[in-house]
User: Fold this.
Amino acid sequence: MQEGEIRFINETVAKTWSWPLSNWKIGIDWRSIFYKSAIIAASGFFLFSIILLKSKTTAEFYSEPVFFSYAIFVTAFLISRIFSAMLYESSMASLMQDTDSARSFYLENYEPKVAFVIPCFNEEKDIADSIINCYKINYPQDKLEVMAVNDGSADKTLSVLKELQKVYPTLKIIDWPNQGKRWAMAAGFETSTADIIIQLDSDSSVDPATFREWIDPFQNPRVAAVCAHGVPKNADKNIITRMQTAYYFMSFRILKAAESTFNTVFCLSGCGAAYRRTAVMPVLYHWLSESFLGRPTTYGDDRALTSWLLKRGESIIYNNKAITYTVVPENWKQFMKQQLRWKKSWIINAIITSRFIWKVQPFVSFFYYFPLVLISFLTPFMTFHALIYTPLTKGVLPFFHIAGVILVTALLVIYYRFLDKNNKYWPYLFLWSLLNLFFMSFILIWAAFKIQDRGWGTR
Amino acid sequence: MHNFNLKMIKMILVILVSSAVVNMVGGISILKNNDYYFRPSYFVMQWDYWKNRAAYAKYAGGSVFNLFSSKKEVSPLISSGDQEAVSIPVLLYHGVIKDSAWQPDEVNIRMEDFRAHMFALKKAGWQTISLEDYSDFIQGKISLPEKSFLLTFDDGRTDSYYPVDPVLRTLDYSAVMFVITSRSISEEKGMGHFHLSQDELEHMLASGRWEMGSHTYDGHGFVPTGADGAEGHFLSSRTWLAAENRLETEEEYKTRINQDILASKNDLEKKLGIKAVSFAYPFGDFGETVENFPESRGSVIDEAHKVFDLSFCQTASGDFPANYREKSFLAKRVNTNSFLSAENLLHIFESNKDKPALYEDYFSKNSGWISGWGAFKMENGAMTIGNSPNDESGLAFLNGSYLWKDYSVFAKMKLVGNGKASLAARYHDGNNYMSCDYSNSSVSLTEKINKLLVSENVVLTDTRLSGGREAQVGVEISGEKISCLLDGKAVVSGTVNENLSKGGISFKIWNPVERDNAVVVSQLKVAPIGEGE
Assistant:
C-alpha cells in the first residue's frame, strides 16, 4: 500500500482525501465528534419528524397508492442522494489510489498541456476577468493555452478581447458569426494540441490557486472529464443571488458529488469542465451533428457532450477542490429565463440519455437516473394535486405538504452544514425549496411546451 | 481495486437506502396506529401538567423549588389526620371546558373553576380513594382517613380527560371515568373526538390514575314514550313501539335494559380487560323521576344490581351530600358546575364531618348548614331560610347530623310572613323526616316518608309567632317517641316512623300562597338523650 493511501470506508468520516499526508489529523478531536453527533441527532430528529408527519397525512397505501408511493419514493430518493454524497470522498480516494495500472499516483508535478476554451457571446463585462484569471495560474506558460471564441457578439466583447491580447500576447481569438456554443467548443477541441481542454463559460473564471487540484484526477487514465465546483461571484448581491448560491453549493457538493461517487456525472456544467481531448475527439462529430425532433439541438451543449462520453463508458467525475467562479442572474426575469433554458435542455437530454444509459450503467440508471426522471415528471402533477386540487375540493390547506417539503429540505441542510460549517447561505436553501415547490416544478411543463424554441437564451 | 470499491459502494448504498425505505414505511404504519404520544392533545397535557405544578406550588404557599421536587412532596399542608371517615362524599364532573368564550351551564365546568375546586380540596387535606376502597368502606370492611373522597367523571368525554389528567398528576389524585361503551370502545381512533377512544381509555388505565365504570352501552339517550312524540330516558321509560302501536311490556323493558347494561359490562371486561363493578345512571336517573312507568324505580336498580356491585346517582336537593355505611348499592354524588364555588364545595365537604349530638350554634358563621332549596342567608348572627318565587318552600339542614339518634333540640326562631316554619328531626333527606311545624295559629307534628305526608297531628294554639316574636321551639326525639315543644312545653307528641331510626335536623319554611316568607333562627342547642348519639 502507498504512503499516501487512505483506508477505505473506515475513513469515510475522514476530513479529506487529498494528499500530502500532513493533512491527516492525529488524536481525537472532541469538538468534531460532538459536532458530528449533533448532526446525526438532528438528522435523526428531522427524519423522525418526516415519518411522523407522513403518518398523519398520507392515506393508507390501499386507498391512495400513487400518492403514498410517491411520497416514500421522493424521500427515499433524496436520502439516497445524501448517502451517495457521503460516499463521494471514499470514491474519490479509491479513484486516486487505483493501482490497477502499474503507475503510482503520487506525482507532485503533474503538468500536462492544458487549453482553456472560452466561448463568448455578448459578455463584455465579465470576459476580462475570465481571461485574466487563466493567466494568473502558477503553471509553465508553454503548457498553457487560452483560446477565446467570439461567437458573433453584438457588443464590445471583441474589442475587450483585442485589448487583452495586447497584455497577453499568447491569447488566441477566434472570431466568427454566431453559430452557437457547441461549435465554439468544438473549435477549441479541433484546433488545440493540449491534452486537457478546459471549457469555461465567458462569465466564469478559474480560481488560480485550485487549478492543479482540478487536473490532478486526469492522472488516472480512466478519468475522461472532471467537473469543477462553481461558486457565484455575486453571491451577496441580493436575495436572489444568495438563494442561488445556496442552491449551487447543494447542487454541486451534494447532488453532483452523489453522481460522481459512481463516476457518472451527468452534466459537466459550463462553469468549469475539464475534458481529456483524446476522450472527446471520437464523439465530437456525433455531438456536433446531433438533432432532436428534426432540429439541431442548440441547448444543453454541455449535457449533450457529457452524455456522449457516458455512452462510451467513460468515467466522469466531480472535483470539489477545483473552484471556479461564475455569475448568477440578479433579477427574477433573467433567473426565470435561465431556469426555463435549463429545464428545456434537461428534458431533451433526459430523453436522449435514457435510450442508452441502461445498457452502459445499469446500476446508476435504475437506482438514480430513471427514478430522477420519473420524479421530475411526476412532481408537477403531485404538486398541483397537493397545492391546488386538494385544497379546492376538500378545503384542506396544504400545510402538511409544505411542512413535509421543509422537513426534507432540513435533512439536506443538515448535511450541507456538515460539509461546510462556514457557508452562511444555508438558510436560503429553504427559500429555494419553497420556490421550487410553488413555481419551478411547473416550469418543467412550460419548458416541455416550448421545447422547439431554440434560441441561445440570453442572460 | 477501484472497481471493487465501486461495487462495495453500490452495495452499501442499496442497503442504506432500502433500510431507509423500510424504516419509513414501517415507521409510518407504526405511528399511524400508535400515535397517542404524538397527538397535540398529549403535548398540551404535558405542558398543562407543569403549569399546574407551578400553580399549585404557588397556591399551597410553597416555594418554587416545590416545582422540581418529587410528587410526594407536593403534598397538602394539612395531613389527612388520624380521624377516620364516617362518610365519604363523591364528586361528579362532566366536561372541563378550556374555551374562555364558553357560557357556563349546569353540567360542565370551566377549567379554572375545576382547578380551583381541586386545589382547594387538596390544600385542605382531601385525598381521593379508589372504587374498591369506597366499596369496602361502605360495606364496613375497612376504614379510611377522614378527608377521603371519590372523584368521578361521566360520559367518557375527551374533555373530561385531557384537561383533567394534568391536575390529577399534580395533586396525586385518582378518578373514575364512567364510559358509554358503544361510543368509546371499538370506535374509530383519532383526534378531535367528543368521546374517548378505546386507545385513549387503555392509556388512561395504564397511567394508574384512572378507573373505569359503565355508563350503559348506548343508554344515555331518549326513547319515544308515546305516539305523540313524547320522549323519556332510555333506562327508566317504557319505549313506545311504533310498529306495534303500544308501549313495551314490563318484561320487554326489563330485557332491553338488562341487555344494554350487560353489553356495557362485556365491553369493559372483554375489550379493556378490567373488572367492571360499578355503574352510573345516565342523567342520574334511577327511576325516581318517573315518566310513564312508576315501577321502573325498582327495576332500574334491580337490573343494574344484577350486573354490578355498586351504582352511582346524583344527590337530590336536600340530600346529605356524603355516603354513609348503609344502603350499599346506591351511592350519591355531588354534582358540580361553574356555579359552585370552591369555597362552597369545601364547605360542603368539611361540614360532612360527623357532629356530636351535643351541639350549639349561634350562627355567627356557617358551621355546616347546607341549603337544600329556596333562599338561604347567614348573617347578623342568624340563619334565614326563605321561600322564593320559584319554590313554595325553603329548607336547610345541618350536615354532619345524619347519624344522630336520640336528642333534644332547642332553637330560638322567628317567623317572617304567614307560612309554616318547621324544625325537622331524624331528617334523612328532603322527603324523609319527622317535623314540628309552627304557624301563627298551630303546632303540628308531621311525618314525611318518600315525599308523602304519612301523618299530621295538628294542635291549634296561639303561638304568637305573628308580628315577628322570637319564640323558643324544640323537638325531643328518643327511640320511637317524639314531642314538639313551644316555649319549653311539649305541645304535641307522637310516634316516630320505623323507617326513621336516625337522622339529623333541618329548618324549613313553607307557604304555598305567599313568597318572601322566612324562618329566622338565631340560636340552637342540641343535647343527646340517653348514652350518646
